[in-house]
Design a protein that fits this description.
By secondary structure, the chain is α+β, with helices and mostly antiparallel strands. The chain folds into two domains: 113 residues, no CATH class; 127 residues, no CATH class. It is 41% helix and 15% strand. A four-stranded antiparallel sheet has the order 2-10-6-8, covered by helices on one side. The protein has a four-stranded mixed sheet with strand order 3-5-4-9. A three-stranded antiparallel sheet has the order 7-12-11, with no helix packed on it. Helix 10 crosses helix 13 and helix 13 runs antiparallel to helix 14. The longest helix has 16 residues. The radius of gyration is 23 Å and the shape is elongated. The chain starts with 15 loop residues before the first helix and ends in a 5-residue tail after the last helix.
């Protein structure tokens, strides 16, 4: 194959069958970066021992609430959390862990409104104060301005990525979630019940189940192998900036009617037969030949 190198466009060398597959994917697919979706990283605490708690510790904090109002308010800011290792293909195995959602500005009202939560965090004050973002600003220097409420980017009572209310609201929406490192596509659907932590990503927007069909497909694993990065030990980094390159066809009523029921069935319980039908439906959208389907199906990471 002769390549003239006369433009600054990217180029790739593929076998004829790989080139045909790539052309069919890109002909009808639109990169996820051009979809009306939002991909965010999960919650970063800076001190998991303080902010991520067991079911037993959650119950202890709730028992220490003095009033019904405090109890009800505390329930709202202690939410179940999923780690990357908990997220499986189409589902998850929740480990019974919760996260305390101490958002931006919580130092102003946490002690008064949530005294039981404050007492819990107070045990970790020294460790929380010594987090880098609590000691330094974005420039790497402490904030020495007179009257500044704290030295660094946020107060010791707040989570490390200083989450805004808009960011936290995304966790309560329907979303696709996944762990950053995995040996194959492991995307799950969350109806807004869980918070995800820093080793995970979440994708909000319309048609989450439709996107889940493509992202969990064998075609996704094959295509991502051409654009993604590996850890070198048999796993892949499903990073945001790479995932946004995957071309997925926009939904039509016909495509939605074909794929969403199959995903709903898989979410009720996984089986090889169900996944086979889902993969077959995805292939039909791209009009792959039998040889191309066999080539994609035969792919696996070494």
């Amino acid at each position: 194959m002769t390549i003239p190198y006369t433009t600054s466009n990217s180029w790739v060398i593929l076998s004829p069958i790989e080139l045909s597959i790539k052309q069919k994917i890109e002909a009808i697919g639109t990169p996820l970066r051009d979809w009306d979706i939002k991909i965010s990283r999960g919650i970063l605490t800076g001190c998991n021992d303080a902010f991520i708690i067991s079911s037993e510790k959650r119950n202890e904090i709730l028992r220490n609430c003095k009033t019904d109002q405090e109890y009800n308010s505390t329930v709202e800011i202690i939410r179940p959390i999923l780690r990357g290792r908990d997220i499986k293909r189409y589902g998850y195995d929740w480990a019974g862990l919760y996260v305390i959602l101490a958002s931006f500005g919580s130092h102003k009202w946490l002690k008064e409104k949530y005294p039981a939560v404050y007492d819990h965090l107070l045990q970790y004050r020294s460790r929380l104060e010594n987090r880098g973002q609590c000691r330094y600003t974005a420039s790497g220097k402490p904030n020495l301005k007179q009257g500044a409420p704290y030295l660094g980017q946020h107060h010791w009572l707040e989570l490390d990525n200083n989450p805004s209310s808009d960011y936290l609201d995304d966790f309560s929406k329907q979303k696709v979630v996944w762990g950053e490192i995995s040996d194959k596509p492991k995307f799950a659907f969350d109806n807004g019940e869980y918070i995800q932590e820093a080793t995970t990503f979440l994708m909000t927007g319309s048609e989450s189940k439709y996107l889940l069909a493509f992202l969990n497909s064998q075609l996704s694993m094959y295509f991502f192998s051409k654009i993604g990065t590996t850890t070198g030990v048999g796993t892949v980094r499903w990073k945001k900036y790479k995932l946004e390159e995957i071309p997925i066809p926009f939904p039509t009523p016909e495509r939605l009617n074909m794929l969403v029921p199959l995903i709903d069935d898989l979410l009720l319980g996984y089986s090889n037969d169900k996944e086979f039908e889902m993969n077959k439906a995805v292939y039909s959208i791209y009009s792959f030949s039998a040889d191309e389907i066999a080539y994609i199906e035969d792919f696996h990471y070494d």
